[in-house]
Design a protein that fits this description.
The protein is an alpha/beta fold. The protein has one domain: UDP-N-acetylmuramoyl-L-alanine:D-glutamate ligase. Helices cover 34% and strands 17% of the residues. Strands 3-2-1-4-5-6-7-8-9 form a nine-stranded mixed β-sheet, with helices on both faces. The longest helix is centred in the C-terminal third of the chain and has 17 residues. The chain starts with 7 loop residues before the first strand and ends in a 23-residue tail after the last helix.
Length: 287
Amino acid sequence: MPEKPVPAVLSIAGSDSGGGAGIQADLKAFARCGVHGMTAITALTAQNTVGVEAVETVSPAMIVAQVRVVAEDIGVDAVKIGMLGSAATVAAVVEALGHVAGAPVVLDPVMVSESGARLLDDDARDALVAQLLPLVTIATPNIPEARVLAGLGDDAPQDLLARSVQRLGPDAVVVTGGHSEALVDLFYDGEESVEIPGERFPGQSAHGSGCTHSAAIAAFLARGAEPLQAAAAARRLASLAVGAGLDGIGKGHGPVDVFDLAARAGADAEPVAEPRGPARLVSRFRS
């Protein structure tokens, strides 16, 4: 089998029907980072920019099967894990990771959607801490998520949160700072604590920023970056995506944009490809 032309990165996460977060955001981030994206869907959500209307989980056996078949055929150079939802899904993902042994794993412990919907129940939180965190290369909780994982109160500082979550098992933790005034991500790997500064942008188009950040970390790890280097590069990409966020897509929180599509869609933008002749019907399927 010939060597892959680019690394292949697997997202194990939920699907966002509005296209802003979850699997959809991860695939965009993977493409932007120059890796081939693959997916194992854990849940289907009926959601838009305003909120999550319904969630339907995928069976544990199907989650494992999705991971197994891509690992057997394509190979997995890194894994990003997002929405899990239930303890049964956590257990399935732990089993599935046995098919990608050796690949770095990035966990974004998604607990609440941008619109406020709860996406992780209490039993799943306990299973995540006990079973999944010890298998993780980098965990990327935001400040509220880190407080829940660490079992600490609202007054716990970011550095204590990073140390407390890292002691639960991951090799390194990035406590993202989007919920703080300082907008600083804090990287901690058990030895080194490093602040990664960010930027604040006007508008509300940050839907999918956490997914984009963690997916980019996984992509950069697959491309050979060290954990701190990957975290810093991913923070920069996520910041740019928020800055280019698509205000006006929907009535709520617009999606981030890793490709700056609005700038590319200007009147002087060149089309991707020019048609070379009139359309011609090749065949018609009949029932």
